[in-house]
Amino acid sequence: MSAVETIGLTKDYEVGSFLKKPHRALDHLDLEVEQGEIFGLIGPNGAGKTTTLKLLMGLVFPTEGDARILGKPVDDRRMKAEIGYLPEQPYFYDYLTGRELLNYFGQLFGLSAVERRTRTKELLAKVGITSAADVPLRKYSKGMTQRLGVAQALLNRPKIVFFDEPMSGLDPVGRREMTLLVRELQGSGVTVFFCSHILPDVEQLCDRVAILDKGKLVAVGRMSEILDVSIDTIEVVAENVEAELEGKLRPLCRALERVGTRVRLSCAGQADFDAAAAELMQGGGRLLSVTPVKQTLEGLFVRKVGEKAQS
Amino acid sequence: MSRVGYIALNTYRETVRDKVLYNLVLFALLMIASSYILGQISVYQEVKIIKDLGLAAISIFGMAIAIFVGIGLVSKEIDKRTLYSLLPKPITRVQFLLGKYCGLCLTVLVNVLVMTAGLYFLLFLMSEPFEPALLKAIFLIYVKLMVLVGVALLFSTFTSSTLAGVFAGFVYVVGYFSSDLKNFDSVVETGALPQITKVLYYLLPNFKNFDIKAPIVAGDIVPMTQIVWATAYGLLYVSLLLVASAWVFQRRNLK
Amino acid sequence: MKLLRLFALMGPLAGIFLIQSHIDEQFGKYRATEEILYVENGKLLKRAMLGFENLGADLYWLRTVQYFGRKRLMVTTKNYVLLAPLLRVTVDLDPEMKIAFSYGATFLAEPFPMGAGLPSKGIEIIDEGIRNHPGYWRFYLDKGFIYSEHLGDYKKAASVFLEGSKLEGAPYWMVAIAGRTLTRGGERETSRILWNGLYKSAETEQQRENAATHLQQLDALDEMDSYNEVVTKYHERTGEFPRRWQDLIGSGFLAEVPTDPTDIPYVLDPESHRVVLRRDSGLGGLPTR
Asked: Is C106 in the same domain as C176?
């Protein structure tokens, strides 16, 4: 049984106050997340990431298609007791203290009073806001609220956690802690599903990744599959490149940039590099540095999204 | 304790920590106290005026709390996005609504009790014997407030706070005069108008059912059966409002 | 599922309808209006209305008309307890509402079941109207009328009519009525002239209908007189009193069963041997002349 499954999940919104035009926020998304994996959902703004999460959490209803979590429909109460959710830029009842909020949510999870007390103490310590436990939430900073958000998502020892931009509002130390937490969760067999803008984090953490753009699924797969090693880039810095030489080099590179007296080239793969290097030597240019650059998720992302935009 | 109970208690806690509430209660107690001064002006009528004003204060301020807080019950949670972390928990949307409703009713109850205590205390200071009959009138006022909270909740599920307030206030005014709608056929004999007004009369909440202030203060006996029936009406109307609210809210997409 | 939802909505609605109907039936149709009984002082209410007195007056006038109702003329088992306080508050809130004074004078003074049977209250209200509108001739007509037809004080009635007839806008026949009331007050013909005057100058449909009913009553009295003469003639001729209409028709005294102006047959009272109105005739409460 997969942890999360969406079949043709579609969501249309009506935009405009008078003549309502439908805006397709999510277009027939087919996704499957395995239990125990760390799964990342990425995409530019408005791609449909948050919409997907909202559909999974039952906050909005699909126009078409279906979604299942642990094989159950999204409004199944027993299933909801097994999951944790951290919304983007979370907001909690500001008249409650951190401890009171965790206690309240614990009540809703059906935890006993003893369990609530223990878990609250544990989690407050784990996310590092014990000192602010009895301070009303309206006095919390963004980072503190984010940490509390993580805490409330883990109250019920969930089987799956859904994080929407978990790193937002955290300083570098906090982000590092978050990364460790995610790894730890995976270690205990928890499935982690998260959306993020911060691609290096995703690249670092995720087993599998899905790229969304304008509501459509653009790519999905294991990190190693997606990042095809054969398309590594090689960065070259050279000087003494005259205009004529530049003209010959341009078709061999993916990008060519003049920086003062020097020229920076990006070549796609070994073959192109060899050709460019030869051309350079012949044309009287001088190689200053050669740096192979591993394909990054960011690069792939920009490319894929760029491709889509062009097509 | 059930989920509904926890949500209700949390709602109650929210209102209790809200400064607006205290201002309202303070005003109410002031009004009751000032009735004493007014009472001194009117010869032989001090007690009657205190009772009249006291009951009116309980009614008006109860109404203010019911509407001001009621209209935000759902809309505020949506606007502030606190609902986002709440609904994915193992609760249903209906439990959420019921919890919010009961929580506000609890708040209103506590406030009514405080104001009642204030009124009786003032009467005690005037050396008036304890009169349980007033409690009948106050009880029906509370039933009326329960209906009003339901109205505010219903509007809160689908409009913004301000609009909900306007609508709820409007329903209160119309509901107060709905009994005048009923007898239209005594004035206009034919045509669709009397039929329409008759339907409206039954559809809209008839708040006059709960108003027994005048006979109680005058010392007349209001039969227990009338109170029972009025209460039955109120509770049934509340269930109608809750069903309608649930119907609306269960399909609502949160932005 | 949809069906269940619909039922969940319709169920309470039906219950609400039933309970409300029961409440209205059990505790009085005008129960909500009964608060007026507790308003001791209309002036105080006026102050409490905070500038909305005219609206309040309109509301109470609406309630008065609803309470008294158009159908009420034909109804026999109602009490008009709320009529006086409703009118009282209406005119307290808005003394400009001349119609309320006039209406009040008419129907407060009318004997039961056509009105509340409180002529003194009617006088009270019309006097208040005169106080507020001293130059308004109508009120003198209404007032004099109460004295004449409901209180039997013809002298007073005549002097009131006379006073009113001098005011601007007063109809030409008001002087004549004054004179006639003085000399022949109490006579049927005088009443007829008075009611005719009221019929012509009536402001509301109800007052016009009321006047028409009274005119019909007078016609009925005339008719009953003539039929009584027929009964007497029969008795002289046969030495017996007719027991049914058939007796008179068979013996050629009458062509058919006589009916009153509302087309309800008259009845031969077996004990007094006089012609009377049938119990369900709408002209009940005949004047005794």
From this structure: yes
Strands A83-86 and A233-239: unpaired
Residue C287 lies in a domain: no
Which of B183, B211, B233 minimises the CB distance to C16?
A: B233
Q: CB B18 to CB A149 under 8 A?
A: no
Q: Are A239 and A219 part of one and the same domain?
A: no
Helices marked H in B44-177 — which ranges?
Answer: 46-70, 75-79, 83-86, 93-125, 133-158, 161-176
Q: What pLDDT was estimated at residue B43?
A: 62
For chains A and C, having 3+ Cβ pairs within 8 Å is answered no
Whether A308 is covered by a domain: the verdict is: no
Structure tokens at A25: 């926020």
CATH code of the domain covering residue A236? 3.30.70.980
ipTM: 0.88
In a domain, A305, yes or no: no
Interval C75-133: pLDDT, tens: 544 667 888 888 888 888 888 888 889 888 888 888 877 788 889 989 999 999 999 89
Are A280 and A196 part of one and the same domain? no
Phi-psi region of A167 (alpha: psi -120 to 50; beta: other; left: phi over 0): alpha
Q: Is residue C54 part of a domain?
A: yes
Put simply, the answer to whether C9 touches B229 (Cβ < 8 Å) is no
- Which chain B residues have a beta carbon less than 8 Å from that of A59? 83-84, 87-88, 253-254
> Domain of C124?
32-213
Q: Which two tokens stand for residue A132?
A: 């602010």
Q: Structural domain tally of chain C?
A: 2
Q: Give the span between the Cα atoms of B138 and B93, in whole angstroms.
A: 32
Between A79 and A226, the more confident residue is: A79
Domain boundary among A226, A249, A283: A226
The ranges assigned to domains in chain B are 3-250
**Model confidence, pTM:** 0.81
Question: Do B184 and C8 make contact, defined as CB atoms within 8 angstroms?
Answer: no
User: In terms of residue numbers, what domain contains A277?
Assistant: 229-294
pLDDT tens-place string over residues B35-92: 777 766 666 667 888 888 889 889 988 999 999 889 989 999 998 999 999 999 999 9
The enclosing H or E element of A255 equals strand A255-259
Distance CA C9, CA B242 (A): 10
Q: Are residues C186 and C252 in the same domain?
A: no
How far CA A161 is from CA of A171, A207, A242, C229, in Å, comes to 22, 15, 57, 107
Q: How many CB atoms lie within 10 A of CB A81?
A: 16
